[in-house]
Structure formats: structure tokens, C-alpha cells
């Protein structure tokens, strides 16, 4: 009697084991099935790196005055003209340093354009300042003078990168200042100067922002 029951018991155990195995396989298949889908979704939408995000943000706002951004002093027309003249000197003298350092390619082209365009800007501002009794500065501001020792120690790509990043910061502030003062001044000649010069400054800002990664020695 005992011997005849053993095969039946063994068969029952096999059935139970088979059911349990099917359940585990089903569960495992469900989990495994979700994984390739998630992986495919991740692969089709790779995460943007921090540098890419910054580049996209810079490109989106490149070449425009920022109404909420930093400005140079411009509480009145005299202060604005002094700031504008200092800005011209900052760009010209740092660009002359860049050429003296032997920059080439895009950096050289940019530096030469800075000298030419900011020389024209100073020439356009001089008669307006003279009529208002304002003597324009002929040197960089204190902040930029303080940069000179550090810049003189740099060379090659390190200098080119620092020069370019400084051009971006300087032209952004100058564009912001001009746009802000244009709504303040009652001097029609000064308004005309800003109207003519601001697009040039914004084009410099756009060049520096978009080409910063391509400016090499």
C-alpha cells in the first residue's frame, strides 16, 4: 500500500514544483520586459552635460543687452560717458595685449576688430563729451588695470581663453549700460551715439559668446 502511494506523491510534488516555476518565470519575464524599454528610452534621450546646457544658454542670449544684468555707472550723462570711454579703453588695450602675446586665428581677428571698432566709438563720443564739458579718460578703469599682472603671466591657450571670457563679460556689461542709459538721457546727441554704437557692441558680444570655444592661439 505504501509502495503504491509513493508514485502518486511524487507526481503531485512535480505538479506543484512546475506551477511554482511558472509563476516565478512569469514574474521574472514581467520585470525583465520593463528593463529594455527603460533602457531604450534612456538611450534615445541622452542626458545633456552641464557644459552643453551652459553653451545652449549662452547661445540663446548671445548678442543682446540684458535689462536685469550688471551695468557700469551711468547715473547721469557725464558718468555714462566716462564709463563708455573706459569701456573702449578696456577693450582696446586688452586687445593690444592679445596681439602682443601673438594670438592667431579667430582670436587675432577678434582683437583687431575690437581695436578698430572701439577706436571709432571713442572718436564718435569725443565731440559729444566736449560739448558737455566732459573730459574722457584715456586709460583702462581700475578693475582692468588690476587684471594686467595676471594676464601678463598667461600665454597660449590659457591667455586666449581668459581674454575671450573677459571680452564676453565686458561687452555684456557695456551693452546693458547703453540700453539702460538710452531710456534715461535727454541728450539727443548721446541718444544718437547709443543708437549707432549699441548694435556694434552687441555684435561683439555675439562674436565673443558664440566663438569662444573656437578661439585658439
How would you briefly describe this protein structure?
With 217 residues, this protein is mainly α. It has helices spanning 2-44, 50-61, 77-100, 105-131, 142-152, 156-182, 188-211.
Biggest sheet record: none
- What is the number of helices? 7
Which value, in Å, is the CA radius of gyration?
33 Å
Average pLDDT number: 79
What is the 3D form? globular
Q: Any low-confidence stretches, pLDDT <50, length ≥5?
A: 1-60
Number of strands: 0
Percent of residues in helices = over 70%
- Terminal CA distance reads 98 Å
Strand-residue proportion: under 5%
SSE arrangement, N to C: HHHHHHH
Q: How does the helix and strand content classify structurally?
A: mainly alpha
Report on this model:
The longest helix has 43 residues, at 2-44. This protein has 7 helices and no strands. The chain is globular and about 45 Å long. The protein is mainly alpha-helical.
Which labels suit this protein?
single chain; 217 residues; mainly alpha; globular
Q: What's the arrangement of secondary structure elements?
A:
Blueprint lengths: L1 H43 L5 H12 L15 H24 L4 H27 L10 H11 L3 H27 L5 H24 L6
Helix pairs in contact: 3-4, 3-6, 4-7, 6-7
